[in-house]
Specification:
The protein is mainly beta and about 525 residues long. The protein contains four helices and 21 strands. It has an 18-stranded antiparallel β-barrel. It has a three-stranded antiparallel sheet with strand order 4-9-10, with no helix packed on it.
Length: about 525
């Protein structure tokens, strides 16, 4: 573990000079100019990297360190009630040559969560039901790398080509007996192409392969004769329990293969710019047990719409209107298998598993998310000087287990407003937001409400899911020029705070400190 941390710190240190060197090659960038350029980047919000050069080919980026502390009693059981986190983030748009334009992003997170239980995996909600966890609350450490690299050609006649790689690795460790450690590898490869018959219209097509593997190897235990129960879940309140030290020899792997495609249409006029994308994907995730026995298989289908629109109003205003929606339909098959042991002529023993019965679609997940937001930016000579915005979000979730039937449903809506203004000749930025969430439906029907998972997770979570709350945030950013070894850059320091208060008199708050530079 110590060597892993040292490697990551060295990599971060190596990236900082690169960011500074890139900055020296461009004009002085600040928050105003950065936000103005970000408002024009529409293709980056899609899977189609070939469209990057159709928005802008400006050289700019940002790098930052962020330290935060979050805590409170408005939290789900499987998420923990306190977190300390350190994040390094760096991204860059760069014209590589006359014919190539690229985008790169790197993020490293190191965090510690406290008060978490009943989930030793990275995905606890609305996903594969065959996960595992301990009932004893503990501390968890997470370290992850998240890297994105995308490249696009400029127009080759009417066509531009592109490709994108998303790569992520993570290490997630429980620090209390039974001690588990999850290793995760996640990568996505996306080739793409755009066709532009003229300077106003563009059509894009992207396709991807996405592989995600999460592995839970053998456990560690500081107690030689521990009798600690460990749980393996199969959907809703249903689970099995391993007692004593038997869980020490259990392993699980989750391996997902996803294929998807996205079709996009973009329009650029004198005073309007829009991009609309439709996408679909299918994933199949195997769940392996000891010696490649299979617990079941999880299938997911995603359908999405994403439309982004920009309107110039006069000479000093830009209106952004965005809408996206995604519907996910997923289900899991459950297997009943028999262990088959064979001994060959040389005396070698091999073990396989034969599937005797399959419960089709025994666990089902349906998730619909919708997000609408609009922002009016006031633009000056140096970029965005202030902005105001409104937003609306809708979430509709259903988890169902059949034979015997149990079901969880909840619907919530969020409305919010945001705003920001630059003061003191653009040296000081003040940003604020306010959001109200209200619940329109939350229902839990359990076939067996006496199980440990029902009593300690599902029923307590209904207080969280059914609550209404007000959530507000305020941040203050100070920009200043700094010359380091001949590289002059605009640096900034930001202090931020968020506070949430529910109608059940529960709260959650976050404070953060950021130090970074625009490059």
């Amino acid at each position: 573990m110590a060597n892993d941390i040292k490697t990551k710190i060295l990599l971060i240190a190596a990236l900082l000079p690169t960011a500074m060197a890139g900055y020296a090659q461009s004009d002085m960038m600040n928050r105003n100019a950065y936000q103005w350029l970000e408002e024009q980047q529409l293709w980056r919000s899609t899977n189609n990297a070939a469209g990057l050069s159709l928005d802008t080919i400006a050289n700019y980026g940002v790098s930052r360190f962020h330290l935060s502390h979050s805590g409170g009693n408005y939290a789900r059981v499987q998420d923990g009630d306190m977190e300390n986190k350190l994040t390094f983030f760096s991204e860059r748009y760069q014209k590589i040559s006359e014919g190539l334009y690229g985008y790169g992003k790197f993020q490293f997170d190191m965090s510690r969560t406290k008060g978490r239980a009943w989930s030793d995996v990275l995905r606890s909600h609305n996903s594969n039901p065959y996960f595992s966890g301990s009932a004893i609350k503990g501390r968890y450490d997470l370290q992850d790398f998240d890297l994105t690299a995308a490249i696009s050609t400029t127009k080759l006649g009417h066509i531009s080509l592109g490709g994108r790689l998303d790569y992520k690795v993570a290490d997630f460790s429980r620090l209390r007996d039974p001690r588990s450690r999850i290793n995760m590898l996640d990568y996505k490869v996306t080739p793409s192409v755009t066709y532009s018959p003229d300077n106003s219209n563009s059509v894009g097509l992207a396709g991807w392969y996405h592989r995600r593997k999460e592995k839970l190897p053998n456990f560690a235990n500081a107690q030689s004769n521990a009798n600690i129960p460990y749980y393996y879940f199969s959907g809703m309140e249903n689970m099995t329990v391993q007692g004593g030290n038997s869980y020490l020899y259990a392993q699980r792997e989750w391996v997902n293969h996803e294929f998807g495609a996205e079709l996009s249409y973009g329009y650029r006029g004198d005073n309007a710019h829009s991009l609309t994308s439709l996408y679909i994907s299918r994933g199949a995730e195997n769940v392996y047990w000891d010696a490649k026995a299979e617990v079941g298989k999880y299938f997911s289908y995603k359908y999405g719409l994403n439309t982004q629109n920009r309107f110039r109003i006069g000479t000093g205003k830009l209106l952004s209107v965005n809408f996206k929606a995604q519907y996910e339909q997923a289900y899991s098959d459950e297997y009943r298998q028999e262990k088959v042991t064979t001994i060959d002529a040389q005396g070698f023993t091999s073990t396989t598993y034969k599937t005797l019965m399959t419960y089709k679609k025994r666990y089902r997940v349906n998730v619909f998310d919708m997000d609408f937001n609009s922002r009016l930016s006031f633009v000056g000579d140096n970029g965005v000087n202030s902005y105001v915005g409104l937003g609306y979000q809708l979430g509709n979730v259903r988890n169902k287990y059949v034979l015997n039937t149990s079901e969880l449903k909840y619907i919530d809506m969020k409305i919010g407003a945001e705003g920001g203004v630059a003061l003191l000749r653009n040296r000081l930025w003040v940003d604020g937001r306010l959001k109200y969430k209200f619940n329109t439906d939350n229902t839990l029907n359990l076939y067996d409400s006496t199980t440990a998972y029902a009593q300690n997770v599902l029923i307590p979570d209904m207080r969280y899911l059914g609550a209404n709350y007000v959530d507000g945030g305020l941040s203050v950013t100070y920009q200043f020029s700094l010359d380091i070894y001949g590289y002059k850059a605009n640096w900034y320091v930001k202090l931020s705070g968020d506070y949430l208060r529910s109608n059940t008199h529960e709260h959650f708050n976050t404070i953060g400190l950021t130090f970074g530079l625009f490059n």
